[in-house]
Description:
- The protein is built from 14 helices and 14 strands.
- The relative contact order is 0.11.
- α2 packs antiparallel against α4.
- The chain has a 5-stranded mixed β-barrel. Strands 2-1-6 form a 3-stranded antiparallel sheet, with helices on one face.
- A hairpin with a 2-residue loop joins β13 and β14.
- It is globular and about 80 Å long.
- It has 506 residues and is of the alpha+beta class.
- Bound molecules: zinc ion (4 copies).
- The site of one zinc ion has 6 residues, from β8.
- GO terms for molecular function: peptidase activity; ubiquitin protein ligase activity; zinc ion binding.
- Keywords: Hydrolase, Metal-binding, Protease, Zinc, Zinc-finger.
- One of its GO terms (biological process) is proteolysis.
- InterPro entries: Lon_prtase_N (IPR003111), Lon_prtase_N_sf (IPR046336), PUA-like_sf (IPR015947), Znf_RING (IPR001841), Znf_RING/FYVE/PHD (IPR013083), Znf_RING_CS (IPR017907).
- This is ATP-dependent protease.
Amino acid sequence: MENVQSPAPHESNASELQAHPQPPSSHHSSSLSARSLIRLIQCPRCSLPLHSPLRLPCGNTHCRECLPPTKTRTKITYPATEGRDKGFECYWSEPGLRLKEGGECPGEHCVGDCGVDVLMGKVVGVFDEGLGVANGEKGSLEGIYELVKDGKLDYTASEVAYLGTDDSEEPEGPVFENLKEALRGELDCHLCYSLILDPLTTPCGHTFCRQCVASVLYHSDLCPTCRRKLNMPSNVKSEPYNNKRIAYLIDNLFPDQVAARREAMDGEDTVSEEKDIPLFVCTLSFPTVPTFLHIYERRYRHMMRRVMASGERKFGMVTYNRGNRPQGNLGRAPFMQYGTLLTIDRFELLPDGRSLVIGRGDSRFRVTKSEIQDGYHVGRIERIDDVSLTEEENMEFTETSREVDASLADEDSKDLPLDYMSTQQLFEMGVNFVRNQRNLRAGWLHPRVLMAYGDVPSDPAIFPWWLANLLPVSEDEKYKLLSTTSVRERLKITAGWVRKLEGSRS
Ligand SMILES: [Zn+2]
Ligand SMILES: [Zn+2]
Ligand SMILES: [Zn+2]
Ligand SMILES: [Zn+2]
């Protein structure tokens, strides 16, 4: 603990037109037809051009007004944000509503997970501008578009027999070329300034390359376009669906550019799951909270100079393996396998080479292997992420829907097992405890401590980190938080501390 500088007084969609219904995987699945191109901007429910396109978590889209009837979701208290208490059966989960574009959906969604699709809205506008104003002779694109606009072409209708076109006819000619060019102008990623690859749409409705979103989430939780909170798991892998229509559009209109980008990306330094990072074996640090360090050991002075020179200014903080316990792949390593990635917020070099560092806790990791370089440990790390909000909500619903044993059913019972409590109740237990402790002028809540670490967080996702940083409980107990993968799990741990501490006093 010798390198810790504590500022606190403690340690730190069948139609009549349909002549030959085709199975989803038709013979020309790889080329684009005028019909399938227009279908991309058609709502599966009302069959009109999309009006205020609503992005669904399954990567599909329909008009905002075409949202199926909603029902109230019960026994879910976290996250208690707008729209999360309403759910609906996704239109795209109906059997038969399948597309070459891949329209399937696993089932139910939460209204809070749906939102505006900004890019799809622009794409619909480009189609209308390119095809909607045509007078006189109409090509197949304009003809099909007009039918859609007039509500005369069902979404699933694949062949437009009387127009003399069918689903296999590839669009061509100046109208198509102009449309293509206009679309291309809307399809650049605002992060890498190239054609969007594997389009992922954020909850705020902005679309970027999947890889670009991953890079952003690595160091921030704000949308690069609108600066709204992303509310996405830091691991984009748990965000299973790309924006299906945008993906189909890009893959079919610009296949060569997509192929070139994929090839180029293979050689790029992508955000990989694993990274090598210098490890500072010293103390327990937690995400979102600062760690104050006083660096004087020669090897760590050297390490900090390198970390500062790297530009990323990140290193891993791990604590000592005091009990010499086995640490996964590492065996009996001198340090614990779970740690926190810190980003240096402030670095002050003292004239004698020592330094004062303020590190901000980012993500958590597990060290999978390590070696010593220049006197300090360098570890291969794997990021530890929380499950998706949907999984988080399912967990709470499942746990709190169980029958409570009659002997424990006493409503107000302070003995109700934590597993049966709502996530909100678990959070409130902690917040109330802090309030009481403050009234009692507990030393660990000294104004100087609050000045350094901030007041009690109102976000249940952050609260446990804050509490662990301040509350005088054993390091072993605090360490348990680092490997958790849900907010609920962490709040159960902190509620457990509260029970124990309150129990011991009464
Ligand atoms: Zn609609
Ligand atoms: Zn869906
Ligand atoms: Zn990009
Ligand atoms: Zn945004």
